[in-house]
Automatic annotation (TrEMBL):
<dbReference type="InterPro" id="IPR037225">
    <property type="entry name" value="Nuo51_FMN-bd_sf"/>
</dbReference>
<dbReference type="GO" id="GO:0016491">
    <property type="term" value="F:oxidoreductase activity"/>
</dbReference>
<keyword id="KW-1278">Translocase</keyword>
<keyword id="KW-0520">NAD</keyword>
<keyword id="KW-0288">FMN</keyword>
<dbReference type="GO" id="GO:0010181">
    <property type="term" value="F:FMN binding"/>
</dbReference>
<keyword id="KW-0479">Metal-binding</keyword>
<dbReference type="InterPro" id="IPR001949">
    <property type="entry name" value="NADH-UbQ_OxRdtase_51kDa_CS"/>
</dbReference>
<keyword id="KW-0411">Iron-sulfur</keyword>
<comment type="similarity">
    <text>Belongs to the complex I 51 kDa subunit family.</text>
</comment>
<dbReference type="Pfam" id="PF01512">
    <property type="entry name" value="Complex1_51K"/>
</dbReference>
<dbReference type="GO" id="GO:0048038">
    <property type="term" value="F:quinone binding"/>
</dbReference>
<dbReference type="GO" id="GO:0051287">
    <property type="term" value="F:NAD binding"/>
</dbReference>
<dbReference type="InterPro" id="IPR019575">
    <property type="entry name" value="Nuop51_4Fe4S-bd"/>
</dbReference>
<keyword id="KW-0874">Quinone</keyword>
<keyword id="KW-0285">Flavoprotein</keyword>
<keyword id="KW-0560">Oxidoreductase</keyword>
Amino acid sequence: MTLTSFGPANLIKRSAETHPLTWRLRDDGEPVWLDEYQTKNGYAAARKAFADMAQDDIVQTVKDAGLKGRGGAGFPTGVKWGLMPKDESINIRYLLCNADEMEPNTWKDRMLMEQLPHLLIEGMLISARALKTYRGYIFLRGEYTTAAKHLNRAVAEAKAAGLLGKNILGSGFDFELFVHTGAGRYICGEETALINSLEGRRANPRSKPPFPAAVGVWGKPTCVNNVETLCNVPAIIADGVDWYKSLAREGSEDMGTKLMGFSGKVKNPGLWELPFGVTARELFEDYAGGMRDGYTLKAWQPGGAGTGFLLPEHLDAQMYAGGIGKVGTRMGTGLAMAVDNTVNMVSLLRNMEQFFARESCGFCTPCRDGLPWSVKLLMALENGEGREGDIETLLGLVGFLGPGKTFCAHAPGAVEPLGSAIKYFRPEFEAGIAPTRAGELTQVVSPTMVGA
């Protein structure tokens, strides 16, 4: 599978007016280094931000543009920036880029970092100026060795050109940027777990409040944004709020464009920059080319392993948070996975829940014990050794590990696909109950068992 693909027969024409994230990409997939990046209007937005805009004006522009986080949660970026303290006496602040892209079926940030490292650096530079942060870290998934190599070279190029370091662009503003490779934990995608890991601590989420904007890295105000989020900032500053909002399709409540993709047994798996509001059917049929010959679409996930399964009849949903929400799940990262007719849903869910159970930080009991419990039950059903009541127990776990029941969002994301799979494909789960054990009841989870 290639990291990027530009539609049927590669006929999609990318331009700065319609594809702010990807128009600079090279057709050969090689990185765009500093000299080429600057010939493609690179760092022009940063120069504008430093020369012509007050710091608060940058924050307001991003807020007015409606930019939302692209890591999966979708929190408004300008609102998040506005939480940083206004007190000028607080002169130590940090900007963190969450590049710990460990969501299964997701590879969008990898493409940006490997092929357009300077776009991320420019986005962080403008953001640092707006937030008055003097130091930034790109917290990178440790397995992304090529991205680390390219980012480190790009940081060195920017520093040599006076775009990082001391007195940037003669403004008197200083900003140092470092690439920090993580040790490889899914939970580091949660921003406070990322902060703990950066500090050299165990990657456990922190209790909130206080939020990172007040108490973050080493106790100082900190802002954490996703790679794709930060890469949107230069275009917003360069071309303005009205233009950015105009990119989205009619009906979408989310503004701009989004990196979207499809994996699985589709004819043209890949990654595309598309306007918010495009339908999942367009993404699946026009870009991914539909299913390969001999396969049919059984189910699909809209944005990573932590989103619920949907059916083929849901493909007409618009790809934005509210559009996917209308059909019962979350958009997540926007990179969809097609499940074909040969896949057994019990086996697929057992595999997913094993991953989520392994990646739990172990801090809270529902997640630490509930996810392995789901794996045990799914393994029994997969092997035809399930008992009556196993499915009800799994559904009980879906409820008890849902939103608001655990310390962070790891467990709710882990059980969302499980609940949707049972909803749509319950007969496949029932088929795993052994006939000889049909009369044996397992202990079904009840609210009193977990102190509800």
